[in-house]
Structure prediction request, 115 residues.
Amino acid sequence: HLLQHGDLSMGQARTLLGLKDKDKIDEVAKKVVKEGMPVRKVEALISSLNAKKPRKKTTHKSAFIRASESQLSNKFGSSVNISETKKGKGHLSINFGSVDELNRILDILGVDLDE
Prediction:
């Protein structure tokens, strides 16, 4: 199944097999190949996808907010939540599962705490 994506390394393919939602493996594999993700980033992506809980349908987010969450989640390899009030104020959160994952996100953001 994963061998159809000939550009996957063994490490990437093995990591993809850890995805709980097996129906999404093809979609995620295509993304991994397209972006040339290193195995560590694939691990972070799979971890964040496995950690996602089904969303409650209590709030209705605009298409812009949903698209923004999706793009940020893809960029950081972690789940992202954006909440917005009717007045245009809001809250942005990026979830992480470990200190290493936080450091990876900070690197993506260009935050260097050693300076």
Q: What stands out?
A: The radius of gyration is 16 Å. Strands lie at 80-84, 90-94.
